[in-house]
């Protein structure tokens, strides 16, 4: 596990200077999916279609639980979850990396605030064009989307540096909310 975490960190440092773009553009229809995961250590099934009935969805892909950048990002989303909830938005994290750890990650790093789900084989990440090949594995790239209740993408942002994902997604949700309240 330590070797895997080091490989993820090394790749993050290598690609941190890459352009901040995501493959699925704003306005595209978000692929629907349903995945198994956990919230506060309790198992759940997350359905994008169901979540969109409640309001916008902040969907963020991350490479692997319990790695430095993913832990930073999870903490930032946990700190902002109450604000997202006040705006009617649901936050969901998705990983194709070390999927056996999502239950613990949902308690420890997500601080019981939002669900994380496992994406075996990165098949959902591939539909969102948010994959990263590393150490012979197909992982989720650090990519955040904000999806409107009509299923259209409002924000698409990729950057292996976790620092701006929460700020950008929160701004997109606020902008959507301002137009729809």
Description:
With 181 residues, the protein is of the alpha+beta class. Helices cover 36% and strands 28% of the residues. The chain has a seven-stranded mixed sheet with strand order 2-1-5-4-3-8-9. A two-stranded antiparallel ribbon has the order 6-7. Helix 3 runs parallel beside helix 6. The longest helix has 19 residues. The protein is globular, with a radius of gyration of 15 Å. The N and C termini lie far apart (46 Å). 47% of the residues are buried. The N terminus is likely disordered.
Set out the fold topology.
Layout: H1 2-15, E1 34-39, E2 42-47, H2 48-52, E3 57-64, H3 68-86, E4 90-97, H4 102-108, E5 115-118, H5 123-127, E6 131-134, E7 137-140, E8 143-147, E9 153-158, H6 165-180
Parallel strand pairs: 3-4, 4-5
Antiparallel strand pairs: 1-2, 1-5, 3-8, 6-7, 8-9
Helix pairs in contact: 3-6
Q: Report the major sheet.
A: 7 strands, mixed
The total count of strands amounts to 9
Radius of gyration: 15 Å
Instruction: Please give the oligomerization state of what you see.
Output: single chain
């Amino acid at each position: 596990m330590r070797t895997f975490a080091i490989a993820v960190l090394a790749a993050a440092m290598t690609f941190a200077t890459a352009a901040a773009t995501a493959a699925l553009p704003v306005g595209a229809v978000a692929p629907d999916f349903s995945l198994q995961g956990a919230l506060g250590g309790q198992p759940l099934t997350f359905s994008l279609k169901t979540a969109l009935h409640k309001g916008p969805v902040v969907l963020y892909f991350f490479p692997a639980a319990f790695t430095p950048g993913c832990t930073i990002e999870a903490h930032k989303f946990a700190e902002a979850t109450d604000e997202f909830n006040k705006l009617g938005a649901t936050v969901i994290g998705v990983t194709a990396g070390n999927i056996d750890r999502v239950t613990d990650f949902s308690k420890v790093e997500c601080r019981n605030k939002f669900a994380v789900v496992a994406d075996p084989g990165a098949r959902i990440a591939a539909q969102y064009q948010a994959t990263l090949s590393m150490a012979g594995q197909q992982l989720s790239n650090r990519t955040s989307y904000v999806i409107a209740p009509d299923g259209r993408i409002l924000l698409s942002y990729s950057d292996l540096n976790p620092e701006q994902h929460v700020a950008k997604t929160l701004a997109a949700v606020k902008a959507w909310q301002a137009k729809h309240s």
